[in-house]
Amino acid sequence: DGGITQSPKYLFRKEGQNVTLSCEQNLNHDAMYWYRQDPGQGLRLIYYSQIVNDFQKGDIAEGYSVSREKKESFPLTVTSAQKNPTAFYLCASSHLAGGKETQYFGPGTRLLVL
Amino acid sequence: GESVGLHLPTLSVQEGDNSIINCAYSNSASDYFIWYKQESGKGPQFIIDIRSNMDKRQGQRVTVLLNKTVKHLSLQIAATQPGDSAVYFCAETPSGSARQLTFGSGTQLTVLP
What we know:
The complex is a heterodimer. Helices cover 0% and strands 55% of the residues of chain A.
């Protein structure tokens, strides 16, 4: 059963704590992305990776870090430097086919601050 | 800066009626457009896409119309059902690559019984 999985579904962070959100895909997609979604707003790009061992900052990368050691995995760490981390985090992946590259999303992780 | 926006933040329709959700974009270089559906607490789900060399594309109960002259995109849902209630996002990219995808803020569609 192919798809994108994110875990956990809910995550609680204490002050000054780093937390890591998991994203795994078995679609054999080259590119992976992390977005942040705040209530009533669209998606904002945090980081993306086009290939293993390479990634680029998106529009709101400050306070976040990522790694891409495997094609299937793109974990996101929310560091203590991110002062307003409460949001819904979405992971996506894509591949180029027929001249188009469509992003497909995981189910999301909701991060809450204690 | 460039933006993708929606004309209406909310839309209510009667079950069985047709729904039309609109989206305006400002980047004249955009050439690939996608509509996503997002149910509460879930990730966005791909509905339909269209390239700029087309004016219309049809799927199952959905049609996307593209008017490049006025930079306007619409999603039509035929015979709207309760399961269609969700937030609908348009997204666009200027290069045909999803890596520069820009999302609108979304329209909340509510289907009334």
